[in-house]
Design brief:
Elements (H helix, E strand, L loop, with lengths): L4 H12 L5 E4 L5 E2 L9 E2 L6 E5 L6 H4 L12 E4 L7 E4 L6 H4 L4
Parallel strand pairs: 1-4
Antiparallel strand pairs: 2-4, 3-4, 5-6
Length: about 100
């Protein structure tokens, strides 16, 4: 996220002239930011908008091999937007085991 996706998104936001506190996107597979992420938020530059990403809805064994939820690449990511609150990343399928998510079941 920090080395490829966030800089690319920063470029898009700048080129589009977006003036916002938050940018909600759903391009990369990584859900976040999560509480475990450094400072709990992602920001474009020092004073740019904060980012929140919906993550992936696909079970990808290459990304979550031997993982268990909550995990930033676990499928079922979403962004919760509530009045008066900052947007936040949530895992809607965090209660499911990997065996329930595999396409062969």
């Amino acid at each position: 996220m920090r080395h490829a996706a966030a800089p690319a998104l920063a470029h898009v936001v700048a080129r589009l002239g977006v003036d916002a506190d938050w940018v909600v996107f759903g391009h990369v597979h990584r859900l976040g930011p999560l509480a475990a992420d450094r400072r709990g938020h992602w920001r474009l530059g020092d004073n740019g908008p904060r980012l929140v990403n919906s993550g992936s809805w696909l079970y990808d064994p290459l990304l979550i091999d031997r993982a268990s939820p909550p995990h930033p690449y676990w499928p079922g990511g979403a962004v919760l937007i509530e009045p008066g609150c900052d947007p936040r990343a949530v895992g809607l399928l965090d209660g499911l085991a990997a065996t329930a998510l595999r396409p062969d079941h």
